[in-house]
Design goal:
mainly alpha, about 0% strand, globular
Length: about 130
Amino acid sequence: MDTRRKILFYINPSSSQADGYVNARLDSVPQGERGKLQRAAMVSGFALQKIDPRIPFLLTELLTENTSAEEILQILKAVLQRDIIATEPVSSVTAEKSVSKNAVESTPPATSDDEDITRKNSRNLF
C-alpha cells in the first residue's frame, strides 16, 4: 500500500516578494533537485512551526531577495527572546552556522518600543 501523499500549492510571484524570491530560487535549482528542496523547505517550515506557530508566517512576510541572515535571526530573537537570552545556544551546529554566543550577548536587548512594534506587526499577520 502506497502511503505517500502528494502536496500541491501555487505561489504567486507577481503579488508577493517572498513568492518571487522562491520562484527565482527554484528556477536556479536543477530540475531533479527541485522536489527535494521543496520538500525540505516545507518540512523545515513545520519544524519552525513546532517551536512557535508564528515563525513560518513572520519569515514568509520578511523574505525578499535582499533579506539578510541577520534580519532572519532578529525575527527569531524577537519571537523567542526569553529563550535565547536565558539559555545557551540550542546546539553547537546552530551556534557555529548562525551567531556565536558572544555576538548574541553583545547585541543590545530590544527596547520596549521595538517590542510593541513587533507585537503590533505580529498581530496584524494573524
